[in-house]
Amino acid sequence: MSWLPKKKVVVPVDFSGESEHSIAVALELVADPSELYLVHVLFPLDNVSPGVLLGDMTDEKRAEAVRDSFDKLLQQLGVTGVNIEVLFGKPGLEVAEYAARIGADLIAIPSHGYDGVTRLLLGSVAERVIRHAECSVLVLRRSDAE
Q: pLDDT, tens digit, for every residue of 54-80?
């Protein structure tokens, strides 16, 4: 199997600077932007969430806001022709399952480099993706790491 180019590359996006770096790296790994799949995962709303109780917040509205954020990010980066997807659930599992569903060759995911209590509280999405992915996973080192 050839390392480059990849036919389908999934990039989880949390709209941080690390996500922008991951998109740039992934674009170098594919022959065409249409082979790049950007995905953002939202936790589902609880029935007792304040926005749900007040009736002004829905998963559809949240997904639309994410799509708008994708549009702004891609315009800022000058990127067109990529695929975007908004999913609901646990980020690590959803990313791995999405990659399997579309037959991805690779998942390129940033590592935020949390450690200690922060990692314990936030968990590691990259670690969960590695554990559950059926394809190769490229974990990108923080762009500001020494």
A: 567 788 989 999 999 999 999 999 999
